[in-house]
Amino acid sequence: MSGTVYGVGLGPGDPDLITRRAARLIAGAAVLAYPTLAGAPSFARSIAADLIAPGTREIVIDLPMTTARAPAQAAYDRGAAAIAAELDAGRDVIVLCEGDPFFYGSFMYLHARLTARYAVEVVPGVTSVTACAARAGLPLAARNEALTVLPGPLPDAALRDRLRDADTLILMKVGRHLPRLRALLVAEGLADRAVYVERASLPAERVLPLAEAPEVAPYFSMILVTKGADPWL
Amino acid sequence: MSGTVYGVGLGPGDPDLITRRAARLIAGAAVLAYPTLAGAPSFARSIAADLIAPGTREIVIDLPMTTARAPAQAAYDRGAAAIAAELDAGRDVIVLCEGDPFFYGSFMYLHARLTARYAVEVVPGVTSVTACAARAGLPLAARNEALTVLPGPLPDAALRDRLRDADTLILMKVGRHLPRLRALLVAEGLADRAVYVERASLPAERVLPLAEAPEVAPYFSMILVTKGADPWL
């Protein structure tokens, strides 16, 4: 009997936003796996740290700091192979995932490599989208409003039409694109409704009007634009 | 000192998908509040039931079964007043919210009525969107893909352009609109990529190709359309 691989969402960063199911799976795990970026400490592991029992085996999937696909593919191949070896030995593997495993998460690359041969269960997590809205005190969508999530690295042309169509707009992965995204929102007349949030739910969290956002934003930052649903019903 | 009102997301239905923070707040609550619909049992309360201590005071906000605004407004006015009376007496109030409080949740109507006068904290929850994706085994969005969430009650014209623009499309609140939405997706050539999910994470959950979905769907149902990101990286 092969083991099962669990892709476990940990939420945006506050360990208290881990679900009960995720907490139990992590605390009872024989084998954990998680990504790191170029040898840096793993953010996913840091979220779950208080739950990890001494002696738990840990598979570190070290991802290269590059936008080239081949080295990243090789890293996921190696990670999937290491996980598969545990599954073949009958052990379950708990993969730690920032946020939600299927929402801009790297777990999907392991899922693609393992799902044909092994039992996979995904445990959904709180996404950074609702965490940012909670911290900003901004309702995201009500009634028949449309909500659109756009990655900030998209070029302006791809962003412009979509942000006009949305009732609520989420710009993810803002990072170094912040000055360009701010200019785009100013040009579209949306800047005064835009809120900048970085590191939602973590001690270093910041929530600011977009006009006061820093020129240099971290990768874990987001812009929320709500076009003014009537919150009163 | 007035109390604090907490809008607490409970996730899609499985009590195991409640976060640790939400669980602790509910278990320690002196006063809970939650909506019901026309006197029916409260879905939010049912999710949290195993956490509610005997003797907890419960404020039931009974919403009328109507699409007219005035009766619903009056119900939220009464609910907010009942909560405010507890806050004025120095007691915290935990408001139970299905899914996430700010993602198509009725908590935002209480938030609008209370936030100017009282401290409000929102505890984000797992949304039905990522819960459905997890159960369907469908990654939602990767890299620079755009994700759009559309309420099913929107008219076809409002849906059509937006569903063409999205890389991943989520149709919420499907319910009685299912036949119309299915016809629209067939016309747009998207039906064979569409998955129907009802009551994700609950015992009565169903995950089906859209072609096999029932003619009559419950309110808690969703259609996911993924346009085929390369899952392999």
Count of discrete structural domains of chain A:
2
Mean pLDDT of chain A: 95
Helix content of chain A: 25-40%
Largest interface: A-B, 66 and 65 residues
Task: Output the helix-strand order of chain A.
Answer: EHEHEHEHEHEHEHEEE
Assembly status: homodimer
Distance between the termini of chain A: 54 Å
Radius of gyration of chain A: 19 Å
Fourth-level CATH superfamily of the largest domain in chain A: Tetrapyrrole methylase, N-terminal domain
Number of helical segments with 4 or more residues of chain A: 7
CATH architecture assignment of the largest domain in chain A: 3-Layer(aba) Sandwich
Topology, number of strands of chain A = 10
Helix and strand composition category of chain A:
alpha/beta
Which CATH first-tier class of the largest domain in chain A would you pick? Alpha Beta
Q: Major sheet of chain A, described briefly? A: 5 strands, parallel
Major sheet: arrangement of strands of chain A: 3-2-4-1-5
Descriptive report:
Two copies of one chain form a homodimer. With 233 residues, chain A is of the alpha/beta class. Chain A folds into two domains: 4-123, Cobalt-precorrin-4 Transmethylase, domain 1 (3-Layer(aba) Sandwich); 128-226, Tetrapyrrole methylase, C-terminal domain (Methyltransferase, Cobalt-precorrin-4 Transmethylase, Domain 2), CATH 3.30.950.10. Chain A is built from seven helices and ten strands. Chain A has helices spanning 20-27, 43-48, 69-88, 107-114, 128-136, 156-165, 178-187; strands spanning 4-9, 31-37, 57-63, 93-97, 119-123, 147-151, 168-172, 194-198, 206-209, 221-226. In chain A, the strands form two sheets. Chain A has a five-stranded parallel sheet with strand order 3-2-4-1-5, with helices on both faces. Chain A has a five-stranded mixed sheet with strand order 6-7-10-8-9, sandwiched between helices. In chain A, helix 3 crosses helix 4. The model of chain A has no long low-confidence stretch (mean pLDDT 95). Chains A and B meet through helix 1, helix 3, helix 4, strand 5 and helix 5 of A and helix 1, helix 3, helix 4, strand 5 and helix 5 of B.
